[in-house]
Every structure is written in structure tokens, then in C-alpha cells.
Fold this sequence. Notes:
Blueprint: H1 21-24, H2 29-32, H3 36-40, H4 45-49, H5 52-58, H6 61-75, H7 93-98, H8 101-112, H9 116-120, H10 133-151, H11 154-162, H12 175-184, H13 197-201, H14 220-234, H15 239-249, H16 254-261, H17 266-286
Helix pairs in contact: 8-10, 16-17
Amino acid sequence: MDEPHPHIQVTFPFDSNIRYLPLVYLIPVDQIVRYPTLNTLPRCLSEIAVSKPMMDLLDSDAFLKDIMDAIAALTFPHFGFGGWKEHYTGYCPVWRLSYALPLWASLMEQECGWGLQLLFRMKPGTQIPFPDAEQVRKLFARVVKRAIAGQGWQPILDIVREMPCDEDFEKWDTNARKDFLRRWYHTRSKKVQTVSLEGMLESSDDDSPIFHIPDPSQNVEEYVIAKDFVERFLATLTEKDRQIVELRQDGFTYEEIADRLGYKNHSGVIKRVEAVKKKLQKYRRSV
């Protein structure tokens, strides 16, 4: 690579996307092909500068999205969490930290000097080669380590690792999600069951299991699973149906529920209970 020209400083708007251009040239060839906008950009600053379409591309939301996704994918593995960025959702705090693009641009320049001013000082016509993938991996490992120390993120990471949440994970059958489920439900079983709906539906009499949650003192795992499922199912019901189920869970009879909710008699409540059971069957098939 040619030596940069000294004593040349270029200014640009603070919020311009061009400040992230140096990061584009750190993405290995086997990864940049996943991001059409980034892969379209010439690897020569002179060619970009004389092309209005390329300058417009740099200023586009598509460029910003692709560079954010690409750099997040390079930083996420170095936070020490299982799996890849794609295994997690935007609710995961670590996923969000991996998208701190202005920070990564700044820290990268601090770590190795690779920044926009250095890019602008290159000789006109310089072609920037693709970097070695292993060197990039080691470089981002150092940058993430610098960010964790400099930003004081370690306590946050410790808490996120110790107390993961279901909404942090994509609903895919990944090792990261399996490990979370095993820890959440206190089991190392290879096949984690979310809930046994057949058990809820097996009885159609007044004591149908749909209206009961297992005793936590007898089986903590079963209690946590069933409670989580019931809460998600209840959220799909109308307010009146939800009240009926909750009152049945509290031990109220059909007659007492009818009186409390303003039904003329308990037969109306029974009809709603049967309707709820049918909704439960349909809900089970959808999850």
C-alpha cells in the first residue's frame, strides 16, 4: 500500500456517513459480499470522490444499515456470549452495544491509526487491498476489549450473562437459545419442552388443567414453564375471557364467576370456558 501524503487535512460534516468509510475497508472479502451497498463501493477513494452515484450511496440509509450490520457482526463475538449476533434480538443489551458504530470508528482509529484522515492522505488512485480475516478478528478483539474497559461495560455484561431474558434470543433452534433454556429451566436435558399443552387439554370437566398452574414447591421447572405459557396465552384473550380464566385459577366456581362478572347464570360462563379451550388448541398449533 502506498505511503500517505503528509500534511493534508480534510474536513467534513460531523454527522456524515463518510466517517465510517475506513471501517468498510476492514471487512474481509468473504464477509463484505453479504452487504450489497458496501460491496458496490470502489476500493479507491479517488473513484468514489469523482462519482456522484457513489457519494450519494455513501450518504444513503442503505449504506448506514449495511455498515452497522457488518461491524456489529465483527464486534459481537468478542463480548464473550455464545453464538452469533444473528442468534439474538435487539432487546439483548450486548446486541445493542455491538451497534455502537461511532464508538467503533473512534476506537479503531485509537487502536491502530486507521481513520478517515489517513484514508484521505493516500495518493490518488491507491487501491486498498482486502485485509486478512484473521488479522481483522484479532484487531476487533482488541478494540472490543478497549471499549469494555474504557466504557465501563463489564458490570453490564456480567449482569446480562447472569440474568438472560427470553426476548433476548431469536426463536430459532440454536445452541445459544438451548443453553439459555437449560439454565432458565434448571435442566441439562437435550430436549427442552416449553409446556405440555396436552396435559392442559386432557380434562374437560370443572377441574381442567387449563385453569391450574403446578405447585412450585413440588416442581419448580414445571411451574416456571406452565406459568410462562399461561401468561402468554392469556394475553391473546379478550378482557372478559381473561377474567374468567384468572378467577377459575383462584378457585371461584362457575356460579361465583357468573355473579361477579354479571352473567345471568353460570351456563354463560361454561360456554366461554369451552370457547377458551378451543382457542388454546388453536394457540398451541401456532407456537
